[in-house]
Design a protein that fits this description.
alpha/beta, Rossmann fold, 6-stranded mixed beta sheet, 10 helices, 16 strands, transmembrane, transmembrane helix
């Protein structure tokens, strides 16, 4: 309490001492006389008056505005902020430090948050500030802090302007090549990446032609009998939808998991595959299997705001959301740590759906435990792909594990 009181009183003590110095310099010049004494007084007087003026100057009465070209970005991009400041007077300010206040991960990751300008007598001024290396997430620009001081460093003035602004930084992703997807799907984890989502082979009847029906589906005999184009009606035999599950437990490869999940979902949706998503630490209900740009935005939004959470285990997710297994979609689990025990526990939830596990790890040979986990998964009808986090952008290439 005493220290806080001293901090509040200190500026007033400084200004009183500065006024006393000016007074003593004047008295000295009056009594001493001569060029030197008056020269010292008039040399010191402008600096003293400027410092006293800074002490009483209302820096909190500025008009400050901030504008952005856009509010949605991609991780790693740079945001350009335009700040405009105006005031009603021309009091000479030696410098003005402008600091953008950033919250959370944005404040820790983004660089270049301070800019210094020299306003002097100008009433209005503007500047552009760039924040580099934006981290993914739903971020807030809370406000702008202004700082100034006098020429001799006696007083500092500071004011904060609350200018809340929301920005959304989508996760980074890369384009998986068509051949890379084909290689993955050809192994049997899920179905074709072609736009046709269903595979038909069992004819159950005939119906009238509908736009989009293939030419090969036309039943010529029924068409001749009914004098109208009739097509074969099929039973759906195989579903090629995909459900992505992200392990959100803390790990050194967590950001790599997010990037890969975003890239994988982007590639599937781009090829017309219906995709669902669930994060092990999601507080909302899992996203149902859908397609299109809307689903891409929903998945990317979940990936943008996800954080590593020790409580977000895969097993808790699978236990709480049994509806994931009722959507008849292939399950793709993306994780960074896989053990034989984990595989055994996951297999307890396995139905007739296709299960695959993508494990992103460091650039090093697989351990005995990891080899055992993969073998255990194979015996339970699940496939495991170990990906090197350092070369994950090269596609779905397995780490040497033979």
């Amino acid at each position: 309490m005493m220290q806080l009181l001293v901090e509040k009183i200190r500026p007033y003590v400084k200004v009183i001492m500065l006024i006393c110095l000016v007074f003593f310099a004047f008295v000295f010049a009056m009594f001493q006389g001569g060029f030197l004494s008056w020269f010292l007084l008039f040399t010191f007087l402008p600096f003293a008056l400027c410092s006293i003026g800074v002490f009483f100057y209302p820096i909190h009465k500025f008009t400050v505005t901030r504008s952005l070209d856009k509010t949605e970005f991609r991780a790693g991009e740079t945001i350009e902020v335009r700040i405009e400041i105006s005031r009603k007077d021309r009091f000479p300010l030696l410098f003005l430090l402008i600091e953008e206040e950033l919250d959370g991960r944005l404040g820790k990751s983004a660089s270049m948050k301070k800019v210094i300008i020299f306003p002097w007598f100008r009433k209005s001024f503007s500047l552009r500030m760039k924040l580099h290396n934006l981290p993914r997430g739903d971020h807030s620009l809370s406000g702008i802090r202004l700082k100034t001081g006098d020429i001799i460093g006696v007083f500092d003035k500071e004011a904060k302007y609350d200018l809340p602004k929301k920005i959304l930084v989508w996760p980074a992703y890369y384009d998986l090549a068509y051949k890379q997807l084909e290689n993955f799907f050809d192994r049997g984890e899920v179905g074709s990446v072609k736009k046709m989502q269903r595979e038909y082979s069992i004819v159950s009847g005939v119906r009238e032609y509908q736009p989009g029906d293939q030419f090969s589906w036309i039943n010529w005999k029924a068409t001749a009998n009914k004098n109208a184009i009739m097509t074969k009606e099929f039973d759906e035999q195989k579903n090629h939808d995909v459900y992505i599950i992200l392990d959100e437990e803390p790990s050194q490869s967590f950001e790599d998991l997010v990037v890969f999940a975003a890239s994988f979902a982007h590639a599937l949706l781009k090829k017309g595959v219906l995709v669902g998503y669930a994060g092990s630490a999601m507080h909302e209900a899992p996203l149902a299997v859908r397609g299109g740009d809307g689903q891409r935005q929903r998945i990317f939004y979940q990936l943008a705001k996800t954080e590593a959470d020790e409580k977000g285990s895969l097993l808790s997710l699978l236990g709480l959301h049994q509806t994931i297994f009722t959507q008849n979609a292939a399950i793709i689990i993306i994780t960074s740590h896989l053990t034989r025990r984990t595989v055994e526990q996951i297999s307890a939830y396995k139905t007739n759906q296709s299960f695959s596990i993508v494990c992103i790890k460091r650039e090093e040979p697989l351990t005995i435990e990891e080899l055992a986990a993969r073998q255990s998964a194979y015996t339970r009808g699940m496939r495991v792909n170990y990906l090197d986090r350092g070369h994950v952008e090269s596609g779905l290439v397995e780490v040497v594990a033979q």
